Hints:
Layout (H helix, E strand, L loop, with lengths): L2 H15 L11 E2 L1 H14 L7 H10 L4 H10 L3 H10 L1 H11 L3 H17 L7 E5 L7 E4 L2 E5 H4 L12 H7 L7 H13 L7 H19 L7 H7 L1 H11 L6 H4 L13 H16 L3 H9 L6 H11 L6 H11 L3 E5 L14 E6 L10 E2 L10 E2 L4 E2 L5 E7 L5 E6 L14 E6 L3
Parallel strand pairs: 1-2, 2-4
Antiparallel strand pairs: 3-4, 5-6, 6-10, 7-11, 8-10, 9-10, 11-12
Helix pairs in contact: 2-3, 3-5, 7-10, 7-11, 10-11, 11-15, 15-16, 15-17
Amino acid sequence: MSLRTILGFSLLLLFACSPSKPSSLNPIIIKEDIAHFWNAYDAIHSTNDTTLHIELLQTLFLDKASDGQKRMIAARNYTADEYVEAITNYPNFWNSLRDNTNQIETHSQEIISGIEKLHQLYPIEDPAKIYFTMGVFRSPGTGVDSFALIGSEYALGDSNTIIHELNEHQQNYFKMNPIEHLQILMVHEYLHTLQKPIPNDFLGQTIYEGIAEFLAQKATGKPTPHQAFTYGPEHEEKVFDLFERDMFRSYARFSWLWNNTNNEFGTNDMAYYVGHHLAMRYYEQALDKDKAIKDLIELDYEDSSAVYGFLDQTERFTKSMALLQSDFESSRPYVSKIEPSISKNQKVDPETKTITIQFSEPLNGRNTSIDYGPLGVEAFPKMSFDRKWSEDFKAWTIPITLEPNKHYQFMVGENFRNENGDPLRPYLVEFYTKK
């Protein structure tokens, strides 16, 4: 074999064994909804006939909505009435924002660069489409399936945006000059299109958002502008002590996630910092960094063993997740008795006028929760709202109207709490009435 052949074979083998880098992406950026919105905006402001406003919004904006705009409306439950109210009540805001929404091309390279950087960390096989949507102040962005959605009314604001017409919570968002942080927002929302679906529980949602924020930072090299990321590192022990207390309490999300500043920290979205910190610890302790990124993005939130395994590997909590959950369950109050005695095997007199739920310990006397059972509204009994606590808060009586020969269900939910904030173990009340 000649020297040239040997060298050629060696080079071929070298390239065959070398890991290939992901090829470049050409993200598709769709912005047509912005033009449709402004057409509707101008038409609404051109007439004093308020009866036409909904029709104009519908025909000029909603009927022409892209798939991404439709997803954003559905994800945030926006209504036509909300759009019209915002358009008519915030003219200074909209007029000051308009130029920014019409200059998205100036940010295209920044957006593409951010997605390319993410692609270098984690190969993207099926690129998501990026939609610049127009909403009514419930989301600067989200990721749904293969749609990366930007709420342009938030994300494209800057220091020149006039915000005095907005409420305090909305104003606070614009104070960080959001358009300067468009790239990290875009990558964060793009990451949601790569993750498994967002879970329903508070702990899972914290991890879901935190992983996206950590990897968006890592891809772009840019810091997160939210106040939680200033407060969190300065008060880390306090934050994690309180998070460990709250992480299994579903109601606690309202103090940690997608919230205002009325909480123990005086800042919103502290769960983003917590989830980010946990993702960072997992990554930093991993020997194989590429695998760690893959693990973070592909974490299955429906698999509790995978979620708990991830959290245990961060070594950030005082006990293993299994022990923490066991402690939480043992601390919860529970339904100890129902009066009259009710069971699926014992039929109830339809003349019964009240049902009393007794608890294992005194509750706080404020928070309550009654909901449908698995059979839904058809099995839900008629109840009066004149419901009463016992003097010791260990019992709660519901006036009720029953019909003969019916199957009834209702759920006593975990919004019932004791004074420590421990939520009730959910309890299904189920019975049949006599003929």
